[in-house]
Amino acid sequence: MALYERQQFDFLLQTAVERFVERLEQRFRGPSPAREHLQLDPEGEGVWLSKFTAAVFEDFLLNNVDGACFVLRALPRQPVELATAPPPSVEDHLIDLAQRSFTRLLRAKSLELLEQHAGYEPVQTEG
User: Fold this and answer.
1) How many Cα atoms sit within 13 Å of 38 on the Cβ side?
2) Residue 127 clears pLDDT 60, i.e. is over it
3) Are 85 and 62 in contact (CB under 8 A)?
4) Residue 118, Cβ neighbours under 10 Å: how many?
5) What is the mean pLDDT of residues 74-93?
6) What distance lies between CA 37 and its chain's CA centroid?
7) Are 18 and 109 in contact (CB under 8 A)?
8) Contacts of 28 (CB under 8 A, 6+ apart)
9) What pLDDT score does 124 carry?
10) Chain mean position to CA 7
């Protein structure tokens, strides 16, 4: 992958993580509850990780063969998680594989950022 493409992918990932974490923190009123929800049920109510990834792919025009290949080229060492039912075409398969790979990375990076944010939460004291 060329350096400019790597830079573009890193920007895409950073943007997606920041947007996702911000939404989770607002929805669950803070980084600690948001992290817990993401950790326990990434597809659960209010988290919807795969739906968020699909929206990112649509917003950044990655929901096509070229976009999927761009993402996959950036993640050559990621483990492969295949769909239970094979997609009907090569295009659908590539997009599905790219979204699954990106979703896994987005979750990991979001958990890291939420952990950092939780470290800066004010301590509640009674008194």
Assistant:
1) 31
2) no
3) no
4) 16
5) 87
6) 14
7) no
8) 34, 36, 37, 46
9) 63
10) 17
